[in-house]
Amino acid sequence: RHNVVNPDEIIEKYGADTLRMYEMFLGPLEDHKPWNTHGIEGVHKFLKKTWRLFYDEEGKFLVDEAKPTDVELKTLHKTLKKIEEDIEKLSFNTAVSAFMICVNELTSYKCHKKEILTQLLICLSSFAPHICEELWNAIGNNDSIVNALFPQWDQKYITENSFECPVSINGKVRAKIQIPLDLTQSQIQERVMD
Q: Is the dihedral of CA 29, 95, 131, 45 positive or negative?
C-alpha cells in the first residue's frame, strides 16, 4: 500500500529513544494502534525536558549535591511506585505518562539534585536507554547504568499527612489552608475560624 514509515528515518530525526518510547506510549501492547507520527513530537519534547534537568540551554551542567525536599521525594517515590506497578502489568503507555508527569513536576520545582535525578535515570533507563546512559556518565558514574539496582519506592514519602481544605464564606471559596489528617472535626472548624 506504500504507507510504510521506515524507522531509520524517524531514528535519524528524533533518536532511537524517542521512537522506542513513542511506541510504548501509543497504548496497551495487546491493542491495535494506528501508526501516526504526529504524536512523536511530544515524546521528543519530553526527552529534551528530561535533558534540561541536567543541562541548561547553554550546556552548563546543573546537577548539584543539595538535599532533596519533601515534595521532590514525594514526586520521585510516587513515580517509582507507579512505574513498578505498570511494568508488572505491561502498561508501558501509562508508565511513560507517569515519567512525563514526574519530569514536569521536577522542572517546576527547579530540581537538579543528584539524589533525585540518579534514581529517576535508573528507572527511565528501561524506556530510554541511550539518553540515560549518557546522563548517567555525566553525573559521574564510570560503569553502565545497566548494572545499577532498580530504585525502591518508600511509603513514608508517599503517605499524605495533610490536605488542602477550601474555606468557603457565603458560598465563595475565600482561602485554602493545609489541614493535618489527624485533626478532629471540631479542631478543623477551629482552624478554619482562626
A: positive
Taking CA atoms, 185 is separated from 82, 168, 174, in Å, by: 33, 16, 20
Cα–Cα distance for residue pair 138/34, rounded to 1 Å: 37
- Cα 139 to Cα 155: distance, rounded to the nearest angstrom: 27
pLDDT digits (tens, 9 = 90+) for 104-123: 999 999 999 999 999 999 99
Alpha helices per DSSP H over 26-182: 40-51, 70-88, 92-108, 114-124, 129-138, 155-158
What is the number of alpha carbons within 13 Å of residue 118 lying toward its C-beta? 16
Please, are residues 130 and 16 in contact by the beta-carbon 8 Å criterion? yes
Q: What are phi and psi of 176, to 5 degrees?
A: -135, 130
What pTM was estimated for this model as a whole? 0.80
Identify the bridge partners of residue 167 per DSSP, sorted by sequence position: 175
